[in-house]
Amino acid sequence: MLALLEDLQKSNPVFVLTDEQSEAFVAQLVQRPQDWCIQSKALFLRSRLERQSSRKVERALMQIQVLVDEFSGECPSSVDRTRCFFGSGLLPIWSVQHFLAELFMSLGLVKSALSVYEALEMWDQVIECFTVLEHREKAEQLIRERLQLGETVDLLCSLGEVTYDTGCFERAFQLSGERSAKAMRLMGRMLFFRKEYEAAIPALEKSLSINKLQLNTWFLLGTAAFRTEKWELAAGAYRHCASMDSENHEVWNNLSAAYIKLKQKDRALRTLEEALRCSYENWKIWENYMVTAVDCGAFEEAIRAYNRLMDLKDKFVDVEVVEILGRAVNDDLVTRSGEKTVTLKASLLKLLGRNTASVPNNEGLWAVYADLVATDSSPKVPTLIVVSYLCAEIAVPN
């Protein structure tokens, strides 16, 4: 059964369904203890599955702690321990202790993890713990001690992170034969958060030229390029982000902003549609979509976005957009799809009726409403003009 479980996990992708199937095997093994090695391996596998669950992670931690204690205990005897040792595939004690330290870190128990890493002499993880605990002096001292035994790329990168010295990253990059994406990524990241965007861009580009599968690095590059007004570079970086993570609304929204700067408003409108697909309840994206739709002449989409914004925000008003829509309908312009804007008059009147009902004291809305109705010679026009005038005179705060 243990062999079947190992085959299941190795022949299937990491997925919820695979974990659920594995849990069934583990439950059977745990309920029928027959051998110490097999039982210990089953308990370890159960803990590894349970670490993903917020409700069960504490039980996984306690279980691994018990296993570590049993490894160093006197019971059971050595004969019982080794009966199915080779067939069970039981991990060595240091691997179980390493897993215990990872659990400590995931739960924020950094000091407990530090003691385990120090016992295992896993110095990279010890340095990470010191950094998380803000013990930068201890981290620097340990790194310099390790560097005396020989320089490595990882140690130089860690020293750069602790001391904020970009020279350490450059030394690490040269030591690697200019093949370390990590060194340039960390250097670019540090320069970015110092707001030295011009200097950060070459470092990030070098890192990505070595390893293109770095989503966060592409995003940093796009942001740095955007803040230095390098619109083409920003758009290219955000396109890479979108190809790697198509469900990230922030990436699509930033990409549309870059397209707007490049005067490519049609592409910006399409990318905003992708952003809305990922985050339909985000009013900021709807507002960007509405403004971009007006600029592109997609007046029907602008009216739809305005209605959606009234759903998401109480007493939403954008008089400038309403005025543009009103002029477009009165002048009978051609929409982006090639239709006459006069066909949108009923939709716009309905929108204005809804908007004035929720915000009755805005003179701009009433003025546009009156202009639209005036083209039909409606008897409502004088009333609407009077209401607009009264709102302007009273100037009641919105």
Key terms:
disordered C terminus, mainly alpha, single chain, elongated, 398 residues
Describe this structure in words.
With 398 residues, this protein is mainly alpha-helical. It is built from 24 helices and no strands. α15 (215-227) packs antiparallel against α16.
Distance between the termini: 70 Å
Mean pLDDT, rounded to whole units?
84
**What portion of residues is helical?**
over 70%
Class per helix and strand makeup: mainly alpha
Query: Radius of gyration from the CA trace?
Result: 32 Å
Q: What best-fitting shape do the alpha-carbon axes yield? A: elongated
Number of helices: 24
Strand-and-helix sequence, N→C?
HHHHHHHHHHHHHHHHHHHHHHHH
Largest sheet: none
Fraction of residues in β-strands: under 5%
Strand runs, count: 0
Low-confidence stretches: 392-398
What are the SSEs and their pairings?
Elements: H1 2-11, H2 16-31, H3 36-50, H4 57-71, H5 78-81, H6 85-88, H7 93-106, H8 110-120, H9 123-132, H10 136-148, H11 153-163, H12 166-175, H13 181-193, H14 197-210, H15 215-227, H16 231-244, H17 249-261, H18 265-278, H19 283-296, H20 299-312, H21 319-330, H22 345-358, H23 363-374, H24 381-394
